[in-house]
Specification:
- This protein folds into two domains: 59 residues, lambda repressor-like DNA-binding domains (434 Repressor (Amino-terminal Domain), Orthogonal Bundle); 56 residues, no CATH class.
- It is built from nine helices and no strands.
- It is mostly helical.
Length: 129
């Protein structure tokens, strides 16, 4: 998704109008409409405000990343769960793959070594090319 699609999707998911979002950003409804159609681009301050408003990264908003969470969100999750930032980020990524995540949770002693063997196989294949 690109910026206009992401913005429209986030706004509709939050169930807010263009007018409400415009008021929160100190821009007009017409500006929000322009952002969503791709006819207008927000300045950097407005882009950051939009990302903060929806609690996503600017990279996600711009379509440069599929990861919604900001570093602050990962840090908050890590603090709440008493795990590191890196561990929190890893868990968030794993949860995007429910089958893999379920196998890792149910039987990590078996699944992790299998993944490690698979990783080694892939690395060997790359070296042999």
């Amino acid at each position: 998704m690109n910026f206009p699609e992401r913005l429209r999707h986030l706004r509709k998911s939050a169930n807010i109008s263009q007018q409400t979002l415009g008021d929160a950003m100190n821009v007009t409804k017409v500006s929000i409409s322009g952002y969503e159609t791709g006819n207008r681009k927000p300045d950097t301050d407005t882009l950051q405000k939009l990302a903060d408003y929806f609690d996503v990264s600017t990279d996600y908003l711009l379509g440069r990343s599929e990861t919604k969470e900001t570093r602050a969100t990962y840090h908050s999750k890590a603090t709440d769960n008493n795990i590191s930032f890196e561990e929190s980020k890893l868990l968030s990524q794993l949860q995007k793959y429910p089958t893999l995540y379920t196998h890792l949770i149910k039987d990590p002693e078996r699944t992790v070594p299998q993944l490690y063997r698979l990783w080694n196989f892939i690395e060997e294949e790359k070296q042999n090319k």
